[in-house]
Amino acid sequence: MKRPKLGKFSLVSLRDLLAASLPTILLVLAACAVAYVVVDPAPPRHVILATGQENSAYEEFGRKYAALLARDGIKVELQRSLGSEDNLQRLLAGKADIAFVQSGSTSEAQAERGNLMSLGSLFTEPVWLFLREGDKRHKLDVRGLTQLKGLRINLGPEGTGVPKLFRQVLSVNGVEPGQLTISSLENTPATVELLAGRVDGIVFSSAPEAPLIQMLLQTPGIRLFNFSQAEAYTRRLPFLTHVVLPRGIVDLGRDIPAQDFHLIAPTATLVAREGLHPALVDEFVKSATEIHGGAGWFSQQGQFPSPKYTEIPVSREAAKYYRDGPPFLQRYLSFWLANLFDRLWVVVVALAALVIPLSKIVPPLYVWRIRSRVYRWYGQLRAVEQVLENADPANCDEVRAELLRRLDDIEGRVNHISIPLSYADSLYGLRSHINFVRQRVRASQKSEPKAG
Fold this sequence. Notes:
single chain, transmembrane, five-stranded mixed sheet, TAXI family TRAP transporter solute-binding subunit, 12 strands, membrane, TRAP_TAXI
C-alpha cells in the first residue's frame, strides 16, 4: 500500500498568499519608484563650475575640485571666465551651476532675487597692486594711492570684479578713475605689458597660489604696493579684511619679501544656484574643506572654508555641514552608497504609508481565496436540493439517479481541491455535507407512497 505524500500538504498556500499580496506588492513598488525618482532624485553626475582667467587662482582651484569630485564619479566641467562678475552673470543666466564669486560683488537682496546661495567663503584674495620701479631717470616711488594719478594702470576686464573693487578703493582716497590711464587687459597679457614697461602697474585680486602672483613677487624691478592704511580701508569698506604678507614668506633664503606688507582683501566664495542637489552641496563643501582647510599665507588652520565673510545667504545643507560635520553615512561609506541609503529613507516613509494599511487587507483576501474554493461547491449542493424538491413524481427515479451521479462528480472534484491544512476543517465539512445531500436523495425514494 502506498503511503500518502505528505509533502503535498502545507499549513499555508504560498501561491494564494502571493496572489493575495500581489496588488499590495505592486502598489508598494510603484510608490517606492515614485519616491526614489521623483521625490528625491539622484544627484547629477555632471556639474558646470565657472572658474576664472587663464593662470588665475580660480582656475587652479577649479582643477583641484574637478580632481576630488572625479574620485566619486562626478564630472566637473570647468568653464573659464573673466572672473567674479562674469561668474555671477553666468549663474544668474543658468549657464553655470556653481562658481567662484568675490565678496562685495552683490548684495543679499540681489542674491535672493537671483536664487543664489553660498556654500561658504574659501579664502582671502588680497588686492595686489604691482608697480614698476622705473629707471634712474623716471623712478616710481608710490607710497599712497593718490600718487597713481597720471600713471598707466591695468585693472583687467569688467567681468573680473577688480575694476569695480578698485574704483571703490580709489574713491575713498578721493581719486577719480579718469585721473588714471586705465586699461582692461586680462591678467597674462597685462603682466607681459608690465614687464615690457608699457604699463606702470597692474591690479589683481587673487589668492597667492596664482602662478602670476608667485612670479611677480619674485621678479626684479617689480614692487608690491604696501597698503599701510589697510585697517582704515576695512572700516570704510566692510567687505574687506586686513591681512599681512609676512616677511620672507615667498622665499626665506632670499628674504622675499624683505618686509611685512599690509594688504586689503575680499574673500572668495563658492556660490551656487538654489537648484543644486543637496548631495552635491555636501560634496563641494567636503572638497572645500580638503582644499582650503589648511594653514595658508593669510589664514590659520581650519579658518576656511567658513559660513562667515559672505553677503550671500548660506545654503541650509552647507550651514548644517559646517555646524555638524559631514553626514553620518558619508563618514563611513562612499558618496554614491551613502546617497543611496540616505534616499532610502524616503522609500521607507512611502513603505510605512502604504504597508501598514494594506497589510490589513492581505489576510482577509487570503482567507477569502482559500475558503472560496470550498464555498462555491455549496452552490452546487443547493442546486441539487432544488432539483430534488421540484422533481416530477412521474420520473423521480431518473431524477434521483441523475442527482446521485452529479453528487459523485462533485465529490470527485472536491477530493482534488488543494487547500492548506489549516483550512482542512472547511474541506471535511463540505465532504460531510455532500454525503448528507446524497443521503437525502436516497431517502426521498423510501418516502414515496407505493402505488395501489
